[in-house]
Amino acid sequence: MRFLATFLFVFLISTSAFAVSGAEFSNDKSGSSLFGDDKQYNNRELIVKFKSTVTSEEKEKLISSLNVKEISSIDQGDISLLTVSKVSDLLPLTKELLTRKEVEFAEPNYNIETAYIPQDPGYTKQWYLPRIGMPAAWDLTKGNSAITVAVVDSGVQMNHPDLKGKITSPINMLTGSPDTLADEHGTHVAGIIAASLNSSGIAGIAPNVKIMPINVFSGDSATVFNIIRGIYYAADHKANIINLSLGGTYYSQSLESAINYARTHGVLLVAAAGNDSSNITTYPAAFPGVIGVSATNSKDEMASFSNFGSYIDIAAPGEMIYSTISGSSYNYMSGTSMAAPVVSGVSALILSKNPFLAPEEVETILKRSAYDLGYAGRDDYFGYGRINASLALENTPEPYSKIKASTRNFKIEGANKLDVSLDIYRGTNIAAYVQNYKGAIIQNLGDSYNWAGGNYSLNWDGRQRDGKYVKTGKYKLVVKITNDKETVYRSIYINVTNSVTPVVKVNKSSTFSPTLESKLTIPYNVNKRSKVTALIYDGRNKKVKQLSSGKLVTSGKQYLYWNGKNGAGKKVKDGKYKLIIYTVDSQKRKSTTKRMDIIVDSIKPSAKATVTTPVFKMDGKSRARMKVEVKESVTINVYILTEKGTRIKKIVSTKSYNPGTHIIKWDGKNSKNKYVTDGKYKYKVEVTDKAGNTKRLFSKNLSLQDWRMPSVEGKSVVEYSALGSTSYTFTLNKPGYVKIELFQDGKRVRTLYTSKWKSSGSHIFKWNGKNSSGELLNGNVFYKITLTDLHKKRAAFTGTIKIELN
């Protein structure tokens, strides 16, 4: 409880102090407080952060209007580095930008210095390694090349004998070149973290990890802009840890933005506390989310030069630290610059042991494992204590346990499964699969996303992706564990013996017509590689033919073929036969024998079609009927044909019928769902048995009479408005004889059609506006259309023609 209470107190104090600095910065719209005499900065450069809603065009327009030049930018943070032509323009420019709605903040490009004190050699070399428990820590891990520590510092000698082969993605932020320009400070920091264990030179804390050198210094100082570019670069290039052995006393909002960017990308940040022997706040060590490191000496005392304060999280050896320097040499240096990489190196070992830890989890392990110095609990000098590498690694949870398998010698029997389990750290994505001896994945066993942590269990039944059981042999079971940055694999080898009893599956029955098909295709399935025997017997259980005699087949779907002949090559008679099939595997295990009944049938089915309504008076409700008689199970197709044999509709489509008498009905419509006209029609019937033999029948003619009531439709009012003929539309529901008459004042004035045959559907008649005497009429004329069908049924329609002549 003392630890928890102290931690909360420090967190609040640290956050409160930091918020005040930010508030002072944000509220000073004049910008004057940014340019104090005690502050060092580039007097012609300004860092500006634009609001995220500002477009590129708006930004360019604003910069152009202020007569300044953008010399660099960081897209991830909407940050620009501007330069002015005269020193005197910098403060007025800042004041102007702070009033603009597009700008979130503006500040000078402060100079940051390294945090070490050069010392002459003379002390016992690398005294700090046993002090922090490195020998015991190395028994657990010496690091992993998948872990990368970015050294945002001066240049590193990348071909130093103790550093060569462990450099990744180097960059010089001043030039954009991968040549970081070797410097003593950056090389010293890199060696503390990762110098090789190669029986020469020195030993790095995490000798197997990678170093990402990022040079941000020109001489002894670096600008904030180059430092934040280096932080963005490290985060974007998937560094796990960023070491910042540098610092300044000026709060920088742009630097804090870069720190936050790295944290959101899962990067652990470690920074030196500074070497002023005071409690002055030093950045970036004082930012939330950064591990601030003070320095101790060989007596576990606070180093005389080390800063202290509420932002100190942990202490580490920083006095007389022997490490690599440029020129392929070695030397002692002192400073919190040396203490910070000690913490970065131990953090790299923690992540090497468990790469799935979040930055805050690594920080918690460091604090809880620290050797308490000074006042009990956390204090402003040692933070939570001096770093303890061996205890930190002991307190680091394993990312996974060993794979536990129910057996390493898996005997596949068909119903059994191989059970596998292991403990896996939370927040990871898991995929499990089986590989063959060539490394090819043959089966996926499962996956899980954002695993909650704990025991992960799976099983394997011995099958591969296609459902077949694998062959006897050695297989590799792999569990892939990953997060957004790191991936690890756990695997075990399993000796597999395929002891599955062979099983054969075949259909229960089939029907075969030798007159229609040259052979009967018989599909069957076997569950494993085995030898198949298959024979045909007749109804008296006499062997007819052997289709397969111990043929070796692979697992899966296979086929047998029978041409309907016996062993002597003669066609068999129609009747009942049976297929007997079984398999035998390489261990002489025999499957259960399976049987399939086969009916050989080459005779067309017996069927009869009779029209039961030879005269069909179609009225829209009744149905014409035909009787079909069959003596076996069949499928039937029925078509309606005209008297000349033209097909007009299919009324039954491949429908199954049992033996017996069946009634087929027709409503008198064609395939377009229109009623047909009076005339003679007939049925075509196709009857097919199970063997595929088909018999075709044609019925006697059916006399269809359309007894539906006739109807005529037209427009009730139409117009005649121009000299000459005008067309008028009417519709008939059925064919018949049409009569069209014109009336005016109760008298018939003209007959257009006396008795004209018309089909069903839409028609027109034309009228020139005149009566039978050729006189042009005026006013309203009534027209009457009468339809008389073949059965003397009548229907009429009456409408009005309005004559409007100007």
UniProtKB/TrEMBL annotation:
Cofactor(s) the protein needs: Ca(2+)
Protein's UniProt keywords contain Translocase: no
Domain FlgD/Vpr Ig-like: 618-689
Places the protein is found: Secreted
Gene Ontology cellular-component annotations: extracellular region
GO biological-process terms attached to the record: proteolysis
Stretches assigned to the Peptidase S8/S53 domain: 145-385
Annotated signal peptide: 1-19
Gene Ontology MF, one: serine-type endopeptidase activity
Hydrolase recorded as keyword: yes
Keywords from the UniProt entry: Calcium, Hydrolase, Protease, Secreted, Serine protease, Signal
UniProt-annotated catalytic positions: D153, H185, S337
Domain of life, per lineage: Bacteria
Protein family according to the UniProt entry: Belongs to the peptidase S8 family.
Name used for this protein in its record: Peptidase S8
